[in-house]
């Protein structure tokens, strides 16, 4: 996956489908709609390719005006990436977090978040992924998960 690239959904699809755990997977949880900088995930494409719910989860509602300016002014392919963010729709408040979802109803999404919010509001799989990634990249957590 390239930094600020345009292949996030395709790479994630390949990673998930290539996992021996794919048959057991019930949902994909993302901590933000962009990975590797501004490689924006096509939520519809990811959900269609995997056939399971996709949830984007954030503690705070992002500053969409700042994101739009950054994408359009500084990122190659920024207009296309902004359209993906617009197509994902506004974040909704569920279980004390902000969520964009493809697949589950609001009540099912809230149930999933609450079920996995073991040590706080952020679902444990996202919290653990953040800790592992921060440990690998920085040697320690930034305490943002």
Instruction: Please tally the β strands and state the result.
Output: 6
**Uncertain stretches:** none
Strand line-up of the largest beta sheet:
1-4-6-5
Q: Look up the CATH topology of the domain at 8-105.
A: archaeoglobus fulgidus dsm 4304 fold
SSE inventory with pairings:
Layout: H1 8-17, E1 28-30, E2 34-35, E3 39-40, H2 43-50, E4 54-58, H3 64-74, H4 78-88, E5 92-94, E6 97-102, H5 106-116, H6 124-138
Parallel strand pairs: 1-4
Antiparallel strand pairs: 2-3, 4-6, 5-6
Describe this structure in words.
The chain is α+β, with helices and mostly antiparallel strands and about 140 residues long. The chain has a domain of about 100 residues: archaeoglobus fulgidus dsm 4304 superfamily (archaeoglobus fulgidus dsm 4304 fold), CATH 3.30.2170. About 45% of the residues lie in helices and about 15% in strands. It contains 6 helices and 6 strands. The strands form 2 sheets. A 4-stranded mixed sheet has the order 1-4-6-5. A two-stranded antiparallel ribbon has the order 2-3. A hairpin with a 2-residue loop joins strand 5 and strand 6. Helix 1 packs parallel to helix 2. The longest helix has 15 residues. The radius of gyration is 15 Å and the shape is globular. The mean pLDDT is about 90.
């Amino acid at each position: 996956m390239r930094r600020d690239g345009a292949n996030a959904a395709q790479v994630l699809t390949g990673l998930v489908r290539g996992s021996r755990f794919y048959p057991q997977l019930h949902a994909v949880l993302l901590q933000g709609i962009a990975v590797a900088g501004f490689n924006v995930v096509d939520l519809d494409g990811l959900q269609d390719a995997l056939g399971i719910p996709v949830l984007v989860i954030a503690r705070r509602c992002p500053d969409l005006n700042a994101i739009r300016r950054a994408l359009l002014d500084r990122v190659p392919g920024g207009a296309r990436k902004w359209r993906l963010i617009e197509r994902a729709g506004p974040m909704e408040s569920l279980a004390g977090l902000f969520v964009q979802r493809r697949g589950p109803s609001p009540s099912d999404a809230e149930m999933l978040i609450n079920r996995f919010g073991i040590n706080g509001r952020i679902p444990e799989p996202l919290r653990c992924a953040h800790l592992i990634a921060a440990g690998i990249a920085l040697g320690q957590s930034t305490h943002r998960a």
